[in-house]
Amino acid sequence: MEITTFEFAVRGDERGSLVAIEERRDIPFVTRRVYYIFGTQPGVTRGLHAHRQLQQVMVCLHGRCRLLLDDGQDKREVLMERNDRGVLIDKMIWHQMDEFSPECVLLVLADDYYDESDYIRDYEEYQTLATAARGEEG
Ligand code: TYD
User: Fold this and answer.
1) What residues are in contact with ligand 1 under a 6 Å CB criterion?
2) Is the Cβ–Cβ distance between 102 and 63 less than 8 Å?
3) pLDDT > 70? residue 138
């Protein structure tokens, strides 16, 4: 399973640093929703779902955490600790975030509005759907 990352240019000068993320240039989609996760309590695991259609790019703005990506066949682990790198969470990728440092701030850019019906929260259901989707592709 390939992990797709996006490297963002850091525009720094003597005042400090700035990163700009432009839709369809720095990430492959138009962002319809932005959310961020912070104040995560010790030992917490978030995510634990996949999306039927939604594409997202996650950036760790501060601190660190672990992102686990699972396409139904392979699992990959990404250490999220850079604010100049986005990681694609594609549609139909099961994901979880854990091992948050107390100060961790995760920024997420999403290509659509929040829609509970787009979530797959049951891992067995996810595997069934992912297997079927692979069959259609192959
Ligand atoms: P949840 O999906 O549980 O977060 P995570 O994937 O990180 O575990 O979302 C937490 C709450 O926030 C839940 O009540 C749904 C709500 N929510 C929105 O209203 N809009 C959003 O864009 C997101 C991501 C969540």
Assistant:
1) 33, 35, 37, 46-47, 114
2) yes
3) no
Which residue is closest in CA terms to ligand 1's atom 1?
A: 47
Query: If you ran DSSP here, which 8-state letter would residue 23 be given?
Result: B
Which pair of structure tokens corresponds to residue 104?
A: 């961790």
Q: Check pLDDT > 90 for residue 136.
A: no
CB contact burial 90-124 (16+ within 10 A = b; e otherwise): bebbbbebebbeeebbbbbbbbbeeeeeeebeeee
The residue whose two tokens read 């992102």 is 67
Chain mean pLDDT for the chain = 97
Distance in angstroms (rounded) separating the CA atoms of residues 113 and 67: 22
Mean pLDDT confidence for 67-95: 98
Report the chain's terminal Cα–Cα distance, integer Å. 16
Q: Which of 35, 105, 116 to mutate to test the pocket of ligand 1 (most atoms within 8 A of CB)?
A: 35
Q: How far is the CA of 130 from the centre of ligand 1 (A)?
A: 22
Given the CA of residue 97, which atom of ligand 1 is nearest to it?
A: 7
